[in-house]
GPN-loop GTPase 2
Amino acid sequence: MSEHSLGPNGGLVYCMDYLEKNIDWLEEKLKPFIEDHYLLFDFPGQVELFFLHSNARSVINKLIKKMDLRLTAVHLIDAHLCCDPGKYVSALLLSLSTMLHLELPHINVLSKIDLIENYGNLAFNLDFYTDVQDLSYLQYHLEQDPRSAKYSEPANRKLTKELCDVIDDFGLVNFSTLDIQMHTIKPLAFTAEVQEKYMKDDEFAQLTSRMQ
C-alpha cells in the first residue's frame, strides 16, 4: 500500500483489480472444491468494491460464467442503523444499489440484532424495518428526531422523500435477521441455499448471457 500510496480502501480496490486480472489463479485454487463443497466468499464491507467500482462484480461474473457457479449474495447491515432514521434510509439505498449492481439472487441481513437495544429504542417494531414498510411514517419520524435535524430543512426533506420513493417503487429490499445467540445462522444458510437452488435455468441462462 505504501509503495502505491494507497489508503485502506484504495488498497482493497487495487487488490480486487489485481485479482480480476489474475482470475485464472483463483479458478485453479477453487477447482478441487467445486464438486462437493459449498463455497463462501467473504468480501470486505467497503462500499467502493460493490457500488463505485466494477471489479468485484467482474470477478463474481467470471467465476459464474467460467466455472458454472450459482451464487447468492448475502449482504450484512448492522442492525443498530435502524435506531437512526437517516442511517436506516442510507442502509436501504446501499442495499438496493448493491442488489442492482451485482444482479445476483440476494439476501439482505440485519446483523447483530441481539445488540440493537444497546443503541436506543426503535421508533417502530422490528417488522417495520425488516419488511421495509411504508417509509412515509419514517419520513415523519426523521423530521422529529433531533439527530436528524438537518433532514428537516426543506431541500433535504424533499430529497429524502424522493429517495424513499425510489426505494418503495423498486420494492426489492427487505431484511432477514441474524442473532448469533439465537442460532439464526442455519435458517439463513437454508434461505441462501433455496435462493440458489430454485433459480430457474432460464434465469441463470439470462444472467450468464449478460456476462458475455
Remarks:
- The mean pLDDT is 82.
- The CA atoms of residues 112 and 179 lie 6 Å apart.
- DSSP finds ten helices and three strands in the chain.
- Strands lie at 73-78, 106-111, 176-177.
